[in-house]
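Sanity check. The docking grid for uridine-5'-diphosphate-glucuronic acid depends on where the pocket ends up, so I'm generating a full predicted complex first rather than guessing from homology. Inputs follow.
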Amino acid sequence: MRISVIGCGYLGTVHAACMATLGHEVIGYDVDTHKVAALSRGEAPFFEPGLPELLQELAPTNRLTFTDSVADVQGADVHFVCVGTPQKAGENAADMTYVDTAMADLLKVVEPGQVVAGKSTVPVGTAERLAAQLAAEVPEATLVWNPEFLREGFAVKDTLHPDRLVYGLPEGAAGESAKELLNTVYAAPLAEGTPLVETDYATAQLVKVAANSFLATKISFINAMAELCESTGADVVRLADAIGHDERIGRRFLNAGLGFGGGCLPKDIRAFMARAGELGVDQALTFLREVDSINLRRRVRMVDLAREVCGGSIVGRRIAILGAAFKPNSDDVRDSPALSVAAQMQLQGADVVVTDPQAIPNARRKWPDLKFADSAEKAVEGAELVLLLTEWPEYVGLDPAALSTLVSGRRMLDGRNALDPAAWRAAGWTYRAL
Ligand code: UGA
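Predicted complex below; grid placement will be based on this.
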């Protein structure tokens, strides 16, 4: 199949590379000429495990190309829309500018018989609107909604071996032939037994935000339990283990700590609430407001705990922060809980030094006033307090005895419940966790 991918961010680049790996001929389009140039050289423009290897493997095949000219995507059987839908400044709603621009671009090149497949996370109703635009310009082309569920850090695996595929299809013959086309695109995962859910546009769009809302709710639920645990001396990790043994609940996504960040969960639950408001059913989602506020409260609690451990004030105290990315195995700092805590502490007068194995360049761009160190050892040098805020394996594996010789005070705050408290205490550290 000939495939075009509109938008080469995390989603689009990984999708393009994976589709080429499956044997398709893929062209990725982006307006960012620097990104297109890097990708054309076979360089991944962001950190994603497995992606550089994939790009290198594909280079000699010529099955994967990139362009900054939309005219080049002409002739593709399927055009995947993979652009971002960030939160609008000062509002909860999603900014649809990139989706609308992508569609306007596509309308110049789409031909009869081709399929436009939306993958971006959008407010429900968007697919219907885009389908009407497409029908007005190219009546014989078909729009399908095919949401993406990949996680950063596992994006290649999630794309090649997804938990499920969802097709939002129009009724009738057009829907049937679009489905056949998508089945050819995804022949490999389907042959592996990946479940396929065929449905209408509205359901397909809602599946994505419902899934992310559920995941966010699970995290905030366990963080609410953590608040109870903290006030009663109970252990939220053991509690999660115990309730997680019940298969109806499940242990995954019950890791209590600093809460969720990133470019997806926070903005998706907010955009979902905003859309529910527009639809007149805002009451159905008021619980997501609580999910959001429990989540944000974790960041405040982290700063409060640091103050408590420092004897009432963090002013002038040298504090090391391990982690800047919103989660391990990513260089993404969008809505990073770690950086939000670091910035708060600095604002309150602490002498903060942040380190991260991958995210420092992105963090520095976003928070130029913060101080950064390029290793954990340098960050903790002379620190009176160390905070683990992103649970990179190299931080979880740090040797407390070795670190003792570098710090000026052995105080560890584990914001991700990732360390072994006994090992740190045995090495003479004051260990506290969220
Ligand atoms: C999330 C979803 O998991 C994907 O399925 C979805 O496709 C993606 O958003 C998207 O909409 O594009 P992602 O943002 O990459 O993926 O990251 P997650 O692995 O979901 O983690 C989100 C945040 O939750 C991180 O800050 C992580 O540290 C936090 N988290 C996760 C917890 O605090 N506790 C947990 O138990 C799990």
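Relevant for the grid: The chain is about 45% helix and 15% strand.
Also worth noting: The longest strand covers residues 2-6.
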